[in-house]
Every structure is written in structure tokens, then in C-alpha cells.
Amino acid sequence: MYREFPSPDDEEVYEAVGQWPDSDESGARILTLRDDSGQSLIFSYDALARSVRIRWVNDHGVEMIDLFRESATRLSFTSGQSAKHILIDFDTGECTGTIEIQVTPHLSVRDRLLFR
Asked: Could you give the number of structural domains in the chain?
């Protein structure tokens, strides 16, 4: 059964994280986020395929994380005075979970996927 994957429009993304998303040849939206130490996090999401990918590259260009997940059910961006976050909810039927990406003041990724 197909479930919708609501995601914010580009303007909402820009207002939350201060960056416009790009798109690749398949139509997936891509954000490349960098921190002060030279690390980068490439976050891409495809609303039609209900998928996300997170690639974290350290300051030497070495890929530290490459995470791909399907069955996304919601994508949101939050922006507060001290931090900015990207939140992705998932529901696979058997499992439910959330990935939380902290954009500022430093990059971090928290992933939780639990059985129902």
C-alpha cells in the first residue's frame, strides 16, 4: 500500500536551514550542509519514492556514513534560536522510527528504528 511522504516546499526548507535544495536527475532534492570544521553532510530525499539518503564526509573527504532508508512518512525542518534540525519519520509496517539530523550548531545524526 502506497503512503504519501509529505515534505516541505523549497521555500520552507530555505527558511528553516538557510539553504535552497538542489535536485538530481531523478528529481530527488539535495541539501549539502557544512560545519566549521570542514565536514559535510549530504541529505537527499525523494517524496515519490519515500526515501532518504544521508552521507557524512569528514574534513579529509572520507565518507563516514552512508545511510539509505525507504518507507519515510514525514519530513520536517525545525529552526530555533540555538539549533536547526531535520526530522524524518518512518513506518515500515513492522517498525517505526525517526532520524534526527542536527544542522547547527554542529552536525549530528540520531537514528531510531524500533519494532512496534
From this structure: 1
Let me know if residue 76 belongs to a domain.
yes
Q: What is the pLDDT of residue 4?
A: 80
- Report yes or no on 42 lying in a domain: yes
- Are 106 and 39 contacting, i.e. CB atoms less than 8 angstroms apart? no
Per-residue pLDDT tens for 49-79?
999 999 999 999 999 999 999 999 999 999 9
Q: Does any domain span residue 5?
A: no
Range of the domain at 89: 10-115
Provide the grid cell at 77.
525542518
Q: What are phi and psi of 58, to 5 degrees?
A: -75, 180
Q: Which residues of the chain have pLDDT under 70?
A: 1-2
**Cβ pair 31, 43 in contact under 8 A:** yes
Q: What's the residue count for the chain?
A: 116
Quote the distance between the C-alpha of residue 34 and its chain's center.
Answer: 14
User: What whole-number distance in Å separates Cα of residue 105 and Cα of residue 70?
Assistant: 28
